Amino acid sequence: MGLFTRGITFPKAFTTTGLTPIDIPLPRQVTLPLRQYMGEAAEPSVKVGDTVKVGQIIATAPGPHALPLHATISGTISALDETLTYTGIPMPAITITGDGKDTWKRLPKPTSDIDALSTDELMAQVDAAGLITTGMFPVPLARDLMPLEQPKTHLTLDGRTVVQRIDTLMITACDPEPALGVNRFLATTNTESLPIGIAALTKLTGADEIRFIVDKNTAPPAQLTALVAADETERTTITAINGKHYPAAHPAVLIKALVHREIPLPYGHPRDVGVALYDLATVIALGDALTTGRPPVTQQITVGGGAIKTGGIVTARLGTSLGDIIEAVGGFSRDPAKIIMGGPLTGMAHYDLSVPLSKEATGLFALTEEEITLTQGYRQCINCGRCVAVCPVNLVPGMLSLYCAKDRFDRAEQQGVLTCIECGCCDYVCPSRRPLVHLFRYAKHQLMEEG
Ligand code: SF4
Ligand code: SF4
User: Nearest ligand, CA of residue 405?
Assistant: First the structure.
């Protein structure tokens, strides 16, 4: 069986999350961590007692690996403290107590005429918006488009160098996991921001070809279909994949399947093989920011799980606590056994509902005991080989887990633990309920610490 042909096709029951849009009311308070992804923390430019407006910068980016932090509600700075974050790590944060008025800061009117902007002007707008990419390792969109550290140089674009000439811009309307639905939902909408986001990315990447990736299990998205029809050069195409097959939407899998190029794992990136790959949510958020000049202050996530009363595609202000989001969708229908931020397969378990919604989040799931594999009391590996049969990157997860559990990180590295894409397929099928991904993350962390 070849590379990336494995994985799991999930039954319908696993993809039940509805796509009903739900807008969460303005929260009374938001808490905004200074670090909005794994990069550098921003530096506060406000103090307790200051009044702020929506969209106002409240912490500045000290370097290229930090993002500016914007107020997401209007009100008063009530604390400069710490909060637990998406990853479960405590982080300095700014808390705003709202005034309920939702007053926006007056921002300069941008031009959304992409042709009229130089790439530098466009990049400055991308940088100012503070957008991040989605995926396992989110980075600022501006860094992703124009990386600072470049191992090799193939092209000069407007006086600056990029790693590899990008010939293909892929925009996926599929979600990273079958239970997530934001991209599938956005594919059913029609927004002026999408063509603007596409025009900006085409200009910044230099791609000649645009490929939309859609889920064949959903109705053909009208706006994407119209964009394909309107392109007289026939360089815009649409491809349907099976969104129930997991991890079909993983960049390495998609690119291998559609353009027959292999991203060099473990540290490879789509641009290393000439592809720029973004999801619909990122492209629309970029188009919104370029059209309005306003930074994104909300995040769309999928809320679901058997312990949630009403699931759907929730739009909430960044910094809203998980508890406030759950309350706003009607609360729990029963006691949850596990709360996960992100998708059920790759997300982070949380025990504290004060954790704020951040840009990294794709979902919020409150799962019942029947929906989860409790790893307490996991058993010995019985060498059944099921994990091997599903691993999309051809690892031997059972054996790897033994090395990781015994702290034999050298052997785990030799056996390819760093190429694990943390898809969770092995966890899902393991009859001994071994916490395989947890062990691989632990080993990767230790190997990174060792340098
Ligand atoms: S070893 Fe990694 S890549 Fe392979 S199935 Fe498990 S989580 Fe996925
Ligand atoms: S699926 Fe579980 S029990 Fe079977 S080989 Fe893999 S780790 Fe061992």
Answer: 2
